[in-house]
Amino acid sequence: MATGTATQEASDLTQKPLATSDRPQLEHLAADEPGTTHAKVVELVRRDGGVVVTGLANKELVTRIRKELKPAFEADIPDESGFFPTTTRRATGLLGVSDGCVDLATNKLWIDVANEILTSTCRPWYGETRAHFVSKPILAGTFGFQIAPGSRQQDLHRDDSDYHLPPGLDSCMVGLLVALTKTTAENGATLVIPRSHLWDSERAPKNEEAIPVELEAGDALIFGGNVFHAGGANKTKDEIREVVGLFMCKGFMRPEENHWLAVPPPVARRLSPQVQRLLGYGISPPAVGFYRYKDPMQVLFGVDDDETVRL
Protein backbone atom coordinates (compact mmCIF):
# COMPACT_ATOMS: atom_id res chain seq x y z
CA MET A 1 0.00 0.00 0.00
CA ALA A 2 1.38 3.40 -0.90
CA THR A 3 2.45 5.91 1.72
CA GLY A 4 2.14 9.63 1.15
CA THR A 5 5.92 9.96 0.83
CA ALA A 6 6.20 7.11 -1.66
CA THR A 7 3.32 8.48 -3.71
CA GLN A 8 4.87 11.96 -3.83
CA GLU A 9 8.26 10.44 -4.69
CA ALA A 10 6.76 8.52 -7.60
CA SER A 11 4.92 11.64 -8.73
CA ASP A 12 8.07 13.78 -8.61
CA LEU A 13 9.92 11.34 -10.84
CA THR A 14 7.47 11.83 -13.68
CA GLN A 15 6.46 15.47 -13.65
CA LYS A 16 8.13 15.96 -17.04
CA PRO A 17 9.01 13.48 -19.80
CA LEU A 18 12.32 11.73 -19.22
CA ALA A 19 14.58 9.90 -21.64
CA THR A 20 14.03 6.15 -21.39
CA SER A 21 17.44 5.69 -19.77
CA ASP A 22 16.58 8.27 -17.08
CA ARG A 23 13.23 6.75 -16.12
CA PRO A 24 12.92 4.35 -13.16
CA GLN A 25 13.95 0.87 -14.27
CA LEU A 26 13.14 -2.65 -13.10
CA GLU A 27 15.87 -4.76 -11.55
CA HIS A 28 17.07 -7.98 -13.16
CA LEU A 29 17.71 -11.19 -11.20
CA ALA A 30 19.11 -14.42 -12.64
CA ALA A 31 16.93 -17.46 -11.92
CA ASP A 32 19.95 -19.67 -11.24
CA GLU A 33 21.63 -17.32 -8.75
CA PRO A 34 21.40 -18.34 -5.05
CA GLY A 35 20.35 -14.80 -4.14
CA THR A 36 17.24 -14.99 -6.33
CA THR A 37 14.87 -16.09 -3.59
CA HIS A 38 11.13 -15.62 -3.53
CA ALA A 39 11.63 -13.12 -0.68
CA LYS A 40 13.90 -10.98 -2.88
CA VAL A 41 11.44 -11.10 -5.77
CA VAL A 42 8.57 -10.13 -3.47
CA GLU A 43 10.63 -7.25 -2.07
CA LEU A 44 11.25 -5.84 -5.55
CA VAL A 45 7.65 -6.33 -6.70
CA ARG A 46 6.46 -4.41 -3.65
CA ARG A 47 9.07 -1.68 -4.11
CA ASP A 48 9.11 -1.20 -7.89
CA GLY A 49 5.93 -2.95 -9.01
CA GLY A 50 7.82 -5.62 -10.90
CA VAL A 51 11.11 -7.43 -11.52
CA VAL A 52 12.73 -9.31 -14.41
CA VAL A 53 13.91 -12.86 -13.69
CA THR A 54 16.26 -13.99 -16.45
CA GLY A 55 16.36 -17.64 -17.44
CA LEU A 56 13.23 -18.67 -15.54
CA ALA A 57 12.30 -21.09 -18.36
CA ASN A 58 15.05 -23.08 -20.05
CA LYS A 59 15.40 -23.51 -23.82
CA GLU A 60 13.77 -26.96 -23.83
CA LEU A 61 10.70 -25.72 -21.97
CA VAL A 62 10.33 -22.69 -24.24
CA THR A 63 10.55 -24.89 -27.35
CA ARG A 64 7.99 -27.33 -25.94
CA ILE A 65 5.49 -24.59 -25.07
CA ARG A 66 5.78 -23.00 -28.51
CA LYS A 67 5.12 -26.35 -30.19
CA GLU A 68 2.13 -27.12 -27.94
CA LEU A 69 0.54 -23.69 -28.41
CA LYS A 70 0.93 -23.57 -32.20
CA PRO A 71 -2.51 -25.16 -32.94
CA ALA A 72 -4.22 -22.82 -30.46
CA PHE A 73 -2.71 -19.74 -32.09
CA GLU A 74 -3.68 -20.98 -35.54
CA ALA A 75 -7.29 -21.46 -34.40
CA ASP A 76 -7.66 -17.93 -33.00
CA ILE A 77 -10.06 -15.42 -34.54
CA PRO A 78 -9.59 -11.62 -34.39
CA ASP A 79 -10.70 -9.78 -31.25
CA GLU A 80 -13.99 -8.01 -31.97
CA SER A 81 -13.69 -5.64 -28.98
CA GLY A 82 -10.66 -3.88 -30.39
CA PHE A 83 -8.58 -4.27 -27.21
CA PHE A 84 -6.25 -6.61 -29.11
CA PRO A 85 -5.20 -5.62 -32.64
CA THR A 86 -6.15 -7.96 -35.48
CA THR A 87 -2.44 -8.66 -35.98
CA THR A 88 -2.29 -10.33 -32.55
CA ARG A 89 -3.12 -14.02 -32.18
CA ARG A 90 -4.18 -15.33 -28.78
CA ALA A 91 -4.41 -18.63 -26.91
CA THR A 92 -6.30 -19.28 -23.67
CA GLY A 93 -6.88 -22.19 -21.32
CA LEU A 94 -3.17 -22.94 -21.58
CA LEU A 95 -2.97 -25.60 -18.89
CA GLY A 96 -5.44 -27.71 -20.84
CA VAL A 97 -3.45 -27.65 -24.09
CA SER A 98 0.18 -27.39 -22.97
CA ASP A 99 1.97 -29.59 -20.45
CA GLY A 100 4.85 -27.12 -20.73
CA CYS A 101 2.57 -24.37 -19.41
CA VAL A 102 1.63 -26.69 -16.52
CA ASP A 103 5.33 -26.89 -15.66
CA LEU A 104 5.62 -23.11 -15.92
CA ALA A 105 2.55 -22.54 -13.75
CA THR A 106 4.02 -24.72 -11.00
CA ASN A 107 7.53 -23.23 -11.10
CA LYS A 108 8.55 -23.12 -7.43
CA LEU A 109 9.87 -19.55 -7.43
CA TRP A 110 6.68 -18.29 -9.09
CA ILE A 111 4.38 -20.25 -6.76
CA ASP A 112 6.27 -19.07 -3.67
CA VAL A 113 6.07 -15.43 -4.84
CA ALA A 114 2.35 -15.67 -5.61
CA ASN A 115 1.62 -17.36 -2.28
CA GLU A 116 3.58 -14.71 -0.36
CA ILE A 117 1.80 -11.79 -2.04
CA LEU A 118 -1.72 -13.13 -2.42
CA THR A 119 -2.46 -15.64 0.34
CA SER A 120 -5.31 -14.38 2.53
CA THR A 121 -6.19 -15.33 6.09
CA CYS A 122 -9.20 -14.64 8.27
CA ARG A 123 -10.13 -15.42 11.87
CA PRO A 124 -13.92 -15.17 12.21
CA TRP A 125 -15.89 -15.98 15.34
CA TYR A 126 -18.38 -18.85 15.38
CA GLY A 127 -20.15 -18.22 18.62
CA GLU A 128 -17.33 -18.02 21.17
CA THR A 129 -14.97 -20.15 19.07
CA ARG A 130 -12.51 -18.47 16.74
CA ALA A 131 -11.62 -20.19 13.48
CA HIS A 132 -8.57 -19.68 11.28
CA PHE A 133 -8.86 -19.97 7.49
CA VAL A 134 -6.13 -19.71 4.84
CA SER A 135 -7.04 -19.01 1.21
CA LYS A 136 -4.24 -19.55 -1.33
CA PRO A 137 -4.20 -17.84 -4.74
CA ILE A 138 -5.54 -19.46 -7.90
CA LEU A 139 -5.04 -18.74 -11.57
CA ALA A 140 -7.01 -15.74 -12.76
CA GLY A 141 -6.09 -16.27 -16.39
CA THR A 142 -3.63 -18.02 -18.70
CA PHE A 143 -2.89 -16.39 -22.03
CA GLY A 144 -0.55 -16.75 -24.97
CA PHE A 145 0.08 -13.98 -27.49
CA GLN A 146 1.71 -13.77 -30.90
CA ILE A 147 2.23 -10.11 -31.81
CA ALA A 148 2.92 -9.71 -35.53
CA PRO A 149 4.45 -6.75 -37.39
CA GLY A 150 2.02 -3.86 -37.63
CA SER A 151 0.47 -4.49 -34.21
CA ARG A 152 -0.32 -1.25 -32.46
CA GLN A 153 0.41 -0.55 -28.80
CA GLN A 154 -2.21 -1.44 -26.22
CA ASP A 155 -3.54 1.24 -23.90
CA LEU A 156 -1.66 1.39 -20.61
CA HIS A 157 -3.79 -0.35 -18.00
CA ARG A 158 -3.86 -2.13 -14.65
CA ASP A 159 -4.95 -5.77 -14.72
CA ASP A 160 -6.68 -5.62 -11.34
CA SER A 161 -9.22 -3.07 -12.58
CA ASP A 162 -11.35 -6.12 -13.43
CA TYR A 163 -11.96 -6.62 -9.73
CA HIS A 164 -13.22 -3.12 -8.75
CA LEU A 165 -10.94 -2.86 -5.72
CA PRO A 166 -11.72 -0.07 -3.25
CA PRO A 167 -9.09 2.72 -3.23
CA GLY A 168 -6.10 2.20 -0.98
CA LEU A 169 -5.94 -1.60 -1.12
CA ASP A 170 -2.98 -3.63 -2.31
CA SER A 171 -3.54 -5.46 -5.59
CA CYS A 172 -5.40 -8.75 -5.59
CA MET A 173 -3.34 -10.01 -8.56
CA VAL A 174 0.20 -10.82 -9.62
CA GLY A 175 1.34 -11.66 -13.15
CA LEU A 176 4.07 -13.78 -14.76
CA LEU A 177 4.96 -12.88 -18.34
CA VAL A 178 7.45 -15.23 -20.03
CA ALA A 179 9.05 -14.47 -23.39
CA LEU A 180 8.98 -17.37 -25.87
CA THR A 181 10.96 -15.32 -28.40
CA LYS A 182 13.41 -12.45 -28.01
CA THR A 183 11.45 -9.31 -27.23
CA THR A 184 12.73 -5.84 -28.02
CA ALA A 185 11.40 -2.30 -28.03
CA GLU A 186 11.08 -2.60 -31.81
CA ASN A 187 9.02 -5.81 -31.87
CA GLY A 188 6.64 -4.72 -29.12
CA ALA A 189 8.19 -5.54 -25.76
CA THR A 190 5.79 -5.01 -22.87
CA LEU A 191 5.76 -1.43 -21.62
CA VAL A 192 5.76 -0.91 -17.85
CA ILE A 193 5.67 2.18 -15.65
CA PRO A 194 7.84 1.24 -12.65
CA ARG A 195 6.40 2.24 -9.27
CA SER A 196 3.04 3.15 -10.79
CA HIS A 197 1.52 0.76 -8.23
CA LEU A 198 2.14 3.60 -5.76
CA TRP A 199 -0.16 6.00 -7.60
CA ASP A 200 -3.68 6.77 -6.51
CA SER A 201 -6.65 6.01 -8.73
CA GLU A 202 -6.92 9.61 -10.02
CA ARG A 203 -3.62 9.64 -11.87
CA ALA A 204 -3.67 8.63 -15.54
CA PRO A 205 -0.66 6.90 -17.13
CA LYS A 206 1.27 8.54 -19.96
CA ASN A 207 3.20 6.71 -22.66
CA GLU A 208 6.31 8.81 -22.04
CA GLU A 209 6.48 7.41 -18.50
CA ALA A 210 6.70 3.78 -19.64
CA ILE A 211 9.80 1.70 -20.37
CA PRO A 212 10.04 -1.32 -22.70
CA VAL A 213 10.94 -4.52 -20.81
CA GLU A 214 13.24 -6.32 -23.23
CA LEU A 215 13.65 -10.05 -22.65
CA GLU A 216 15.52 -13.01 -24.08
CA ALA A 217 13.49 -16.18 -24.69
CA GLY A 218 12.88 -17.79 -21.30
CA ASP A 219 13.16 -14.55 -19.32
CA ALA A 220 10.20 -13.53 -17.18
CA LEU A 221 8.57 -10.35 -15.94
CA ILE A 222 6.83 -10.73 -12.57
CA PHE A 223 4.61 -7.75 -11.73
CA GLY A 224 1.73 -6.64 -9.55
CA GLY A 225 -1.79 -6.33 -10.91
CA ASN A 226 -1.82 -2.63 -9.97
CA VAL A 227 1.14 -1.69 -12.22
CA PHE A 228 0.39 0.23 -15.42
CA HIS A 229 1.61 -1.71 -18.45
CA ALA A 230 0.77 -2.42 -22.08
CA GLY A 231 1.80 -4.60 -24.98
CA GLY A 232 4.07 -2.52 -27.20
CA ALA A 233 3.75 -1.80 -30.92
CA ASN A 234 5.56 -4.19 -33.25
CA LYS A 235 7.41 -1.87 -35.63
CA THR A 236 9.49 -4.56 -37.31
CA LYS A 237 8.95 -5.99 -40.80
CA ASP A 238 9.27 -9.70 -40.07
CA GLU A 239 9.55 -10.41 -36.30
CA ILE A 240 6.70 -12.06 -34.39
CA ARG A 241 6.86 -11.58 -30.64
CA GLU A 242 5.54 -14.58 -28.73
CA VAL A 243 4.78 -14.53 -25.01
CA VAL A 244 2.89 -16.46 -22.34
CA GLY A 245 1.14 -14.75 -19.42
CA LEU A 246 -0.01 -16.48 -16.23
CA PHE A 247 -1.96 -14.37 -13.74
CA MET A 248 -2.85 -15.28 -10.17
CA CYS A 249 -5.57 -13.73 -8.03
CA LYS A 250 -6.66 -14.08 -4.44
CA GLY A 251 -8.36 -17.42 -3.98
CA PHE A 252 -11.68 -15.98 -2.82
CA MET A 253 -12.14 -14.05 -6.06
CA ARG A 254 -13.67 -15.23 -9.32
CA PRO A 255 -11.01 -15.91 -11.94
CA GLU A 256 -10.87 -13.72 -15.02
CA GLU A 257 -10.88 -16.73 -17.33
CA ASN A 258 -13.46 -19.51 -16.96
CA HIS A 259 -11.09 -22.44 -16.41
CA TRP A 260 -13.91 -24.96 -15.95
CA LEU A 261 -14.90 -24.47 -19.59
CA ALA A 262 -11.36 -23.98 -20.92
CA VAL A 263 -10.04 -27.01 -19.02
CA PRO A 264 -13.20 -29.09 -18.35
CA PRO A 265 -13.28 -31.99 -15.86
CA PRO A 266 -12.39 -34.75 -18.38
CA VAL A 267 -9.21 -32.82 -19.26
CA ALA A 268 -8.46 -31.67 -15.71
CA ARG A 269 -8.80 -35.25 -14.41
CA ARG A 270 -5.35 -36.12 -15.81
CA LEU A 271 -3.69 -33.16 -14.07
CA SER A 272 -2.26 -33.18 -10.56
CA PRO A 273 -4.29 -31.98 -7.54
CA GLN A 274 -1.98 -28.95 -7.36
CA VAL A 275 -2.87 -27.92 -10.92
CA GLN A 276 -6.56 -28.73 -10.38
CA ARG A 277 -6.53 -26.29 -7.45
CA LEU A 278 -4.69 -23.66 -9.50
CA LEU A 279 -7.54 -23.93 -12.01
CA GLY A 280 -10.07 -23.27 -9.25
CA TYR A 281 -11.65 -26.71 -8.88
CA GLY A 282 -10.97 -26.60 -5.14
CA ILE A 283 -12.61 -24.50 -2.44
CA SER A 284 -11.43 -21.17 -1.08
CA PRO A 285 -11.96 -21.70 2.69
CA PRO A 286 -14.26 -21.45 4.41
CA ALA A 287 -16.75 -22.38 1.67
CA VAL A 288 -16.47 -20.43 -1.58
CA GLY A 289 -16.89 -22.76 -4.54
CA PHE A 290 -18.52 -25.78 -2.88
CA TYR A 291 -20.79 -28.22 -4.76
CA ARG A 292 -23.73 -29.67 -2.84
CA TYR A 293 -21.81 -28.90 0.36
CA LYS A 294 -18.85 -30.97 -0.78
CA ASP A 295 -15.40 -30.13 -2.09
CA PRO A 296 -15.74 -30.42 -5.91
CA MET A 297 -12.37 -32.14 -6.13
CA GLN A 298 -13.74 -35.00 -4.04
CA VAL A 299 -16.78 -35.28 -6.31
CA LEU A 300 -15.02 -34.88 -9.66
CA PHE A 301 -11.61 -36.44 -9.09
CA GLY A 302 -11.79 -38.40 -5.84
CA VAL A 303 -9.13 -36.16 -4.27
CA ASP A 304 -9.02 -36.41 -0.48
CA ASP A 305 -5.90 -34.83 1.01
CA ASP A 306 -4.80 -32.29 3.61
CA GLU A 307 -6.18 -29.38 1.52
CA THR A 308 -9.64 -30.94 1.07
CA VAL A 309 -12.29 -28.69 2.64
CA ARG A 310 -14.94 -30.50 4.68
CA LEU A 311 -18.26 -28.71 5.19
UniProtKB/TrEMBL annotation:
Region annotation Disordered: where it falls in the sequence: 1-22
Metal-binding recorded as keyword: yes
Cofactor: Fe cation
InterPro entries on file: Phytyl_CoA_dOase-like
Gene3D superfamilies found in the cross-reference section: q2cbj1_9rhob like domain (2.60.120.620)
One GO MF term attached to the UniProt entry: metal ion binding
Keyword Metal-binding in record: yes
Comp. bias intervals (Polar residues): 1-18
Keywords per UniProt: Iron, Metal-binding
Source species, domain of life: Eukaryota
UniProt similarity note: Belongs to the PhyH family.
Protein name: Phytanoyl-CoA dioxygenase
Organism encoding this protein: Knufia peltigerae
